[in-house]
């Protein structure tokens, strides 16, 4: 699967392997919140650089419709030739990382 990401001016890939990881590590996230994943990459509230991996970006967006309010966080590895989703998870609070971009 591929998702448009205007911020990176690229398509972001979600491989079958990463989808399996997300379904095992964060049960109930996908496919249930697939539309929120799409919206987060298309129109994020914030984008942070990962503390763990300099090539990873954490896209996040707040959704009141998810368990009385949660962020969806999409972790993307960016490379010149290929960008892919590492994981997706809901979060009550955002932690770590340096803010690279914030919606005004």
Describe this structure in words.
The chain has 104 residues and is α+β, with helices and mostly antiparallel strands. The protein has a single domain (2-99), classed as Nuclear Transport Factor 2, Chain: A (Roll), CATH 3.10.450. It has two helices and seven strands. The strands form two sheets. It has a five-stranded antiparallel beta sheet with strand order 6-5-4-3-7. Strands 1-2 form a two-stranded antiparallel ribbon. Strand 1 (2-5) and strand 2 (10-13) form a beta hairpin. The radius of gyration is 13 Å and the shape is globular. The mean pLDDT is 95.
Descriptive labels:
globular, Nuclear Transport Factor 2, Chain: A, alpha+beta, 7 strands, 5-stranded antiparallel beta sheet, 41% strand, two-stranded antiparallel ribbon, 104 residues, 2 helices
- Work out the count of structural domains: 1
Order of strands, main sheet, comes to 6-5-4-3-7
State the end-to-end distance: 29 Å
Structural class, by secondary structure, is alpha+beta
What's the architecture, going by CATH?
A: Roll
For the residues shown, what is the average pLDDT?
95
Which stretches of 5+ consecutive residues score pLDDT under 50? none
Radius of gyration: 13 Å
Mind describing the biggest β-sheet?
A: 5 strands, antiparallel
Which H/E pattern describes the elements?
EEHHEEEEE
Strand content: 35-45%
- Please state the overall shape, judged from the principal axes of the Cα atoms: globular
**Percent range of helical residues:** 10-25%
Given this structure, which CATH class is correct? Alpha Beta
CATH topology: Nuclear Transport Factor 2, Chain: A
The count of helical stretches stands at 2
What is the number of strand segments? 7
